[in-house]
Structure formats: structure tokens, C-alpha cells
Write a structure and sequence with these properties.
By secondary structure, this protein is α/β, with parallel strands linked by helices. It is built from eight helices and 26 strands. Helix 2 packs parallel to helix 7 and helix 4 runs parallel beside helix 7. The radius of gyration is 30 Å and the shape is elongated. The structure holds adenosine monophosphate and magnesium ion. Magnesium ion (MG) binds next to loops.
Length: 424
């Protein structure tokens, strides 16, 4: 891996314009300065769920360990079967899963075998039970019961070969990986330490739930959406509460957050006017860039480092918090967690069921409802798209992604949608 770039290098690039930063550009720039966690811990397989592997896993054995039957039936020697008519064989034993037949098959002999039963020595094929009849130890196999040698037989190592790297460092551990790891007989793996993310909300008008609102005050909802989004990404979320727009209070909150976490996320305080003193403060404490992203919602975004922590200063508006988190923070957190291959958020095409008003020049993420129409997937906006209308996020099941150059879009056009289900 090449060394991460510094923020200074980024901000000195020729085409760097902090006041109109395209979404993709911002994403790419953030990606260049991320430094993933390196600390690891060894955990029992179950504890590895939702963590990221910190080692390559090499299989100590072949899976399956033996050739075995893919179905209930009769283990035979293919060469014994008549090409045209019925074949009569002699039953010489049984092979159950976990209780193999210990002998070997002689000419015109067969063994009753069950799914997962080890193939007896000399048997190469399994006849499914529906294609054979047994009477007094004589087994009649129907003509054409199998078409080729090896049929209905699972081969040793067909899933995993001994010595094969089954899972690579940086791979997420999901339910399938738990099963794969267990199938190799491995009970402890090395994973990266969980990412610690501290967050707080800024604003004199904000109150926490459980308190009474004074005139003009509102309940802080951003800490709740952030808590939810961080938990779904399996981060350790450190909630530092509401911090008023008071420089001393902000300074101490930033210091506490940076000292206790790998990542600091704030909401509010990055819009015009408020950003000025936050900027002064952060210039003192770290290296932070303030961007106006060419997107809606979510125009102001601060990004940088405070001490050794990565910092994302999200806008205050509740919808903008979620959109910027999903578009910028999510991917960054996956990289920081040690993930090496990050799947793009699932996007697909749908027909717009209602017109959308839009100005060219910025990427828009409208909240949409995607549903199956008579001729394929159709999407319509949730209605009011203001960045303070948090209920629109709750009604939506997707973002309608409208690229920079697009202006008004009439109904019937095909648009890109990003499933929220793939994000959270
Ligand atoms: P700001 O970016 O701080 O100017 O905030 C923009 C808008 O978002 C204002 O209407 C704020 O009251 C609102 N807002 C900021 N933070 C929060 C929060 N934590 N919860 C709910 N609304 C917020
Ligand atoms: Mg504010």
C-alpha cells in the first residue's frame, strides 16, 4: 500500500475547489488519507461475527474430507451397469453418514448408501434410490439409471482443498463465513479491533430526549440516527451528547472525542456563519478541510483529522446527516475497519413514476419509494424533500440518485436508485 496522502497535498492540487466539490471527488480524496486499524484480537468463531478478518485463513484439511454420496441410493461400480438393460447387483452392506462401509466393492456388488455416506472403496457412482429395487439382497438397477461414471458423488476437497487460502485478511465475517470457518474445524480467528467512533451534536437549540423544551428548542435526533447507522456498521459508538455553540465547550468535546476514538463525527456547526469559529478551533487542534459538496442535501461537510482521529463534520439538518453518512462516512468506516474489498452500494435502474424538479450542477439524493409496477420497478419521490423532513427517510426505501448534469426529470424516465437496504 502506498502511504496515505496528507490533507495539505490534497488541498494543493490544481483542480481543488473546496466550494464546489463533486461527490465522487470528495469520496476519492477521503479514501486516499484513510489509515485502517491495525490492532487485532483473537476471538472464538461466534465472536467474529460482523468483524473483519485480520489473517488469511488456510484450510488445514479438505472439505469434504472424503468422497461421499450426494443422495440416498446405491453405491455401484459404473462399469458393472449394463449399457442398455437392467442390471442386477448383490447388496453387501450399508454406508450411513458418519458410519462408513468398511469393506470394498467386488464385481456386481452394491452398498446401500445415504446422503453424506462415505463412498465405499471401489465404488465410483451412486444410483438414486428411485431408480433401483431391492428384494432379498438382490438389487435391480433400472436401465439408464445413471448416465456417466461419478454421478451423484461428491468429491473430497470439492468445496475446499487442503492448504487453500479460504478467506483473506480484510474479509468481513458474516453468517456464511462463520459456517465456512467452522467447516474447517477452526475455532479461533484473528480479527481487527472494533472501530471506536465518538459523536456529538452541536447547537444551542438542541435538547436531549427526557428533558422539556424551552421556546425555540428542538430535540436532538441526529445522535439517534448516527447511533443507529454506526451500530449497523458494527462500530463501537461513543455518544458524547449535545454540545452548545460555545468555543470552550466545543474544544473540550473535540479533545475528549479525539482522545477516545478512532473517528469523530459531529453534526451541525459546519454551515456558513457557524463554520467560522469551528474552523478556527479545528485549525488549532488538527488539520481539517471544509468543503461545500456539490450535492443536495448535504452541502457543507468538514473532513480531516483531530489529533490521531479521523474527523467528519456533518451538516446539522437531519436528512443531510443521513445522506452524507451513507455517501461518505459509511465507506470510510468500512476501510478503517480493515475491509479490503468494499462492494459498491447496490444501485439499479427504475422508471420514475412522478416528475422531479432539479437544477443541474449538483448531485441529488432524493428519498424514494421503490415498488414493483406492472412493467418492472417503479420509483417515486416520498414527497416533500426538504433536508429537515426526517420522516421522508423513514418512508423511503431508496435514494433516487440524480447526477450533476441532470435537470428536471419527467415521469417515465429511467433513473438510478440506491437501495437503503444495501446501506444499512
Ligand atoms: P446547522 O448546520 O447547525 O446550522 O443546523 C441546520 C439545521 O439542522 C438547523 O435547523 C438545526 O436546528 C438542525 N439541527 C442541527 N442539529 C440537529 C440535531 N442534532 N437534531 C435535529 N436537528 C438538528
Ligand atoms: Mg447549529
Amino acid at each position: 500500500m502506498t502511504d496515505p496522502r496528507t490533507l495539505r497535498e490534497i488541498s494543493c492540487a490544481d483542480d481543488y475547489d473546496p466550494d464546489s466539490m463533486p461527490v465522487d471527488r470528495a469520496r476519492a480524496l477521503i479514501r486516499q488519507v484513510l489509515t485502517p486499524v491495525t490492532a487485532t484480537e483473537r476471538v472464538h468463531v461466534r465472536q467474529a461475527l460482523d468483524r473483519v478478518l485480520a489473517e488469511d485463513l488456510t484450510s488445514p484439511m479438505a472439505v469434504p474430507g472424503h468422497d461421499n454420496s450426494a443422495m440416498d441410493g446405491w453405491a455401484v461400480r459404473f462399469a458393472d451397469l449394463s449399457g442398455s438393460g437392467e442390471t442386477e447387483l448383490t447388496r453387501v452392506g450399508e454406508s450411513f453418514a458418519g458410519k462408513p462401509f468398511t469393506g470394498s466393492l467386488g464385481p456386481r456388488e452394491t452398498v446401500r448408501i445415504f446422503t453424506g455416506g462415505v463412498m465405499p472403496a471401489n465404488a465410483d457412482t451412486v444410483v438414486m434410490q428411485e431408480r433401483a429395487n431391492e428384494r432379498d439382497g438382490r438389487v435391480r438397477v433400472a436401465a439408464g439409471a445413471v448416465s456417466k461414471a461419478g454421478q451423484n458423488r461428491r468429491f473430497a476437497g470439492e468445496d475446499v482443498k487442503r492448504g487453500q487460502v479460504v478467506l483473506r485478511r480484510g474479509h468481513p465475517v458474516r453468517p456464511a463465513e462463520l459456517g465456512v470457518i467452522a467447516s474447517l474445524g477452526i475455532n479461533e480467528v484473528s480479527v481487527y479491533r472494533r472501530l471506536r467512533v465518538a459523536f456529538f451534536s452541536t447547537g444551542d437549540e438542541l435538547r436531549s430526549i427526557g428533558t422539556t423544551l424551552g421556546p425555540g428548542e428542538i430535540y436532538d435526533s441526529n445522535r439517534y440516527t448516527l447511533y443507529g447507522m454506526l451500530s449497523h456498521l458494527h462500530c463501537e459508538a461513543l455518544d458524547l451528547g449535545v454540545v452548545p455553540d460555545v468555543p470552550a465547550a466545543l474544544e473540550s468535546a473535540f479533545a475528549t472525542a479525539a482522545a477516545n476514538a478512532d473517528v469523530v463525527i459531529t453534526s451541525g456547526g459546519v454551515s456558513v456563519g457557524e463554520a467560522d469559529y469551528v474552523k478556527q478551533l479545528l485549525d488549532k487542534m488538527g488539520e481539517v478541510l471544509f468543503w461545500k459538496i456539490a450535492m443536495k442535501p448535504g452541502r457543507p461537510l468538514a473532513y480531516g483529522r483531530i489529533g490521531s482521529a479521523h474527523f467528519f463534520g456533518l451538516p446539522g439538518n437531519p436528512v443531510a446527516v443521513m445522506v452524507t453518512f451513507y455517501q461518505f462516512v459509511r465507506e470510510a468506516l468500512l476501510v478503517l475497519q480493515g475491509r479490503t474489498e468494499i462492494e459498491a452500494v447496490p444501485t439499479f435502474k427504475a422508471t420514475l413514476a412522478a416528475p422531479i424538479k432539479k437544477m443541474a450542477g449538483r448531485t441529488e439524493f432524493q428519498r424514494g419509494i421503490l415498488a414493483r409496477g406492472t412493467s418492472g420497478w417503479e420509483v417515486r419521490p416520498t414527497g416533500e424533500q426538504g433536508s429537515g423532513i426526517l420522516s421522508s427517510m423513514s418512508q423511503a426505501n431508496c435514494f433516487i440518485v440524480l447526477p450533476t448534469d441532470t435537470a428536471n426529470v419527467p415521469a417515465g424516465e429511467v433513473v438510478d436508485v440506491q437501495l437503503l437496504e444495501g446501506l444499512i
